[in-house]
Structures are given as C-alpha cells and as structure tokens.
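Notes from the 1:1 (GR / supervisor)

We went over the backlog. Supervisor wanted to see one worked example end to end before approving the batch request, so GR pasted a single chain during the call. The sequence is below; no edits were made to it. Supervisor asked that the structure be written out right there so they could see what the output format looks like.
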Amino acid sequence: MAIKPMDDRVLVKPIESESKTASGIFLPESAKEKPVKGEVLATGPGKRLDNGGRAQMSVRKGDTVVYGKYAGTEVELKGDKFLILRESELLGVLD
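Structure output shown during the call:
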C-alpha cells in the first residue's frame, strides 16, 4: 500500500534527531525533541486554481524540508511514521 498526497499536500518522512549529544551523552526518548525536518517522499499535483489548472509545487521528491513542530497529520504505514503536510505548512527547503 502506498500513500499518494492530494492537491497541495506533501508526504514527508521525518528525520529523527540525534540520540547522542556532541559530548557523547545518550539522550532518553523522553528528552528528544520532536523532528522538525524531513525528506519529501511524494507530492500532490498542486492546488487547484480558479481557471481549472493547477499551481506548480515548489518542492520535489527527495528535497529535505523544515516544518513546524506540530504541523501536519501523522500517519503510520507498515510500522513507519510519516507526515502529510500542506505545502503552506513547510517553512523552507534545505540545500
């Protein structure tokens, strides 16, 4: 089963934060922050415009994006967690 985003939505695989600090201390799960960046796995066709066409998406599959801490909807598929976000909820694309 695969997830195909609709309209201006984006499917993102969150990139987990490090479980070890720079000084070598391991962090417990409760101390880790919620991920705020991830990799785009799929995009929808774009937002429907008034003229019936579609707006072009500004992100592509493979882009690494930054999003708000509590943005999007979390979904689980085959034990993996993903986020479905609107394109407007993305804060930026990392180079």
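Supervisor's comment: The chain has one domain: 9-17+28-94.
Batch request approved.
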